[in-house]
Hints:
By secondary structure, the chain is mostly helical. It is built from 11 helices and no strands. 71% of the residues lie in helices and 0% in strands.
Amino acid sequence: xxxxxxxxxxxxxxxxxxxxxxxxxxxxxxxxxxxxxxxxxxxxxxxxxxxxxxxxxxxxxxxxxxxxxxxxxxxxxxxxxxxxxxxxxxxxxxxxxxxxxxxxxxxxxxxxxxxxxxxxxxxxxxxxxxxxxxxxxxxxxxxxxxxxxxxxxxxxxxxxxxxxxxxxxxxxxxxxxxxxxxxxxxxxxxxxxxxxxxxxxxxxxxxxxxxxxxxxxxxxxxxxxxxxxxxxxxxxxxxxxxxxxxxxxxxxxxxxxxxxxxxxxxxxxxxxxxxxxx
Length: 278
């Protein structure tokens, strides 16, 4: 029986390794294109291993295109949205999880309803709201749009986690003399840290990759985000430069990958942080 388990584990690991390799094919494909000096992506002579190896495409993206400016814009929008959305979602999620007040269930149902519709359906209404306030072609307006979308997601995600934290932990803190502020600061938030970090990363990824609102409410290349900038690299060219586009695409993904690898240990610890010893 022990040998059967070992054999099954080996085949299971091989299966997941194969899945990982299959998922890496598009990335390796883009890497091969980005290191090729010839724009022959659609030709029959293209190969995964570049025949004319060069880093010129990366140099062109970094120094000949406004990539670093787009990076700065994306960083401003992403971190502003993450900070404000988390600041709204965490106390709201805790209140909806722990407090029982009139209208609680209708509020939760309304939030689900608002999040059920595709955000693109509200684009015209959002434009009519932001235009009189001068928030079109303005980062503040774009941040408000992102917060309105992701604060609801963060609230629901965090509420589900707060529901898993046993009430016995908070009751024990109250018995020890902790007031509500100390209870939340010293007990609840440390237990909820994995969920807060995961929620923040998911909000960051959404804003980092968001395209529709970025190109609709922002004009001018100096205000483009990375997603809008990637589109601009291809939209104005009659002969599209796929090596430069591939190099830019890979560079766009690097910051998110770094953040993901830094916080990946929290991805699996979220549901075990609030356990109670029997």
